[in-house]
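Aim 2 progress. For DMT family transporter, the working sequence is reproduced below.
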Amino acid sequence: MKKEILLPLIALFSGVLLTLMIMSNSYLSTFTSPLHASWLTHGTGAVVALIIWLTVKTHLPQRRAGKKIPLWCYLGGIPGAFTVLLAAVTVNSPLSLSGSIVLMLAGQIVTGLIIDHFGLMGLTRRKVTGRDGLTLLLLFSGCILIIAGK
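Predicted structure tokens for this construct:
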């Protein structure tokens, strides 16, 4: 399968998995607490990631010699932990799963545009255009429709 087709399908599937993770963690938090559910979710994820790594480690690309990894690259787990914790709170609120997901998506897109525009974290700068502004307008209109339609 061509990369042009496969990569968007992988990204779409990742979104499905993210929604299932948020839903199951949020439901788990109703039996325990958001913090306890977050610990359980991340513990389970760590075990699965370890199993996958042990299975495929010989097929992974090697680290580039001479390239120093920026320290901030190791901090990805911090927003991940807060995402799982905060999602457990919002999904179990009047926002529900769909309202929480659409607002999380909006936050991701706005943050992505800011990072692209300023070339933050070593990424190539990409000018934000009027088309991006229209996209944001439509995105937030959709958020309002989804949340107000409940």
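The chain has a mean pLDDT of 91. This observation will guide construct design in the next reporting period.
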